[in-house]
């Protein structure tokens, strides 16, 4: 698939050949690249609705997406660093955080660039629903001040829970995805600047995360 994941697919049974159609029962498993460890999930059987008005039908089970999530989580694909060097729009400093959180202003009097490190703390959960599927990710985000000598100083760490729905449609012979952020929840896990109300940060962090995730998703 890419540098992080590989897919193994094979027939579960002999192809069923009928007068008007052929059934191919394939089992697809996604693995971390070069690491064919067993999946923690169990494949459940499913059937395709009996229709005959199209030439080709493809069905992907929840198991396929679950193993994909496991593979990319194991490969570290959900660990993201957001910094000024990697994101042209990202220009946030401790001064901006300090204007919202007085504790940051007291801890870091001199303005420094800010770096965010995000990581999934559990395997993302993928659930198939009617005409769409949802992805729930539990993770953490650590906020660093980038000092003049390029070292970093941790300011605080937050827990994050996000729930996103993706609906797929075919429009003008193209597969188009519609992404909807259902829930984005923060809680303070650890702070080197002292306790503060996490609600002070929710608006700015929601903007940062949506700006980082949504454009790349729409681009695909």
Nutshell version of this structure?
The protein has 220 residues and is α+β, with helices and mostly antiparallel strands.
Task: Lay out the secondary structure.
Blueprint lengths: L4 E7 L4 E2 L4 E2 L2 E7 L29 H13 L5 E3 L11 H7 L1 H6 L6 E7 L4 E5 L2 E15 L5 E20 L2 E18 L7 H21 L1
Antiparallel strand pairs: 1-4, 2-3, 5-6, 6-8, 7-8, 8-9, 9-10
Subcellular location: Secreted
GO molecular function: lipid binding
Subunit structure: Monomer. Homodimer; disulfide-linked.
CATH homologous superfamily assignment of the largest domain: Bactericidal permeability-increasing protein, domain 2
- The rounded distance between the terminal residues' Cα atoms is 14 Å
Share in β-strands: 35-45%
Helix content: 10-25%
The biggest beta sheet is recorded as: 6 strands, antiparallel
Low-confidence stretches: 213-220
Apparent shape: elongated
Class per helix and strand makeup: alpha+beta
The helix/strand order is EEEEHEHHEEEEEH
Q: What is the number of helical segments per DSSP (H or I, 4+ residues)?
A: 4
Mean pLDDT: 82
- Total number of strands: 10
What CATH calls the topology of the largest domain is Bactericidal permeability-increasing protein, domain 2
Gyration radius, rounded:
22 Å
CATH class of the largest domain: Alpha Beta
What's the architecture of the largest domain in CATH terms? Super Roll
**Structural domains: how many:** 2
Protein name: Bactericidal permeability-increasing protein
InterPro entries: Bactericidal_perm-incr_a/b_dom, BPI/LBP/Plunc, Lipid-bd_serum_glycop_C
Domain Lipid-binding serum glycoprotein C-terminal: 50-217
Subcellular location: Secreted
């Amino acid at each position: 698939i890419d540098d992080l994941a590989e897919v193994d697919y094979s027939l579960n049974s002999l192809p069923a050949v009928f007068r008007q159609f052929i059934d191919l029962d394939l089992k697809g498993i996604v693995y971390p690249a070069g690491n064919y460890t067993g999946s923690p999930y169990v494949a459940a059987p499913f059937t395709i609705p009996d229709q005959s008005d199209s030439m080709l039908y493809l069905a992907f089970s929840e198991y396929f997406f679950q193993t994909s999530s496991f593979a990319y989580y194991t490969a570290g694909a959900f660990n993201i660093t957001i910094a000024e060097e990697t994101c042209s729009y990202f220009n946030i400093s401790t001064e901006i955080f300090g204007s919202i959180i007085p504790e940051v202003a007291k801890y870091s009097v001199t303005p420094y660039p800010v770096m965010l490190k995000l990581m999934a703390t559990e395997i993302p959960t993928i659930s198939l629903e009617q005409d769409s599927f949802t992805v729930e990710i539990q993770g953490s985000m650590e906020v660093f001040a980038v000092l003049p000598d390029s070292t970093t100083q941790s300011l605080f760490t937050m827990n994050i829970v996000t729930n996103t729905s993706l609906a797929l449609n075919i429009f003008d012979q193209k597969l188009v995805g519609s992404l909807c952020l259902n829930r984005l929840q923060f809680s303070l896990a650890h702070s080197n600047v002292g306790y503060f109300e996490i609600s002070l940060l929710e608006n700015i962090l929601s903007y940062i995360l949506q700006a980082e995730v949504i454009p790349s998703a729409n681009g695909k």
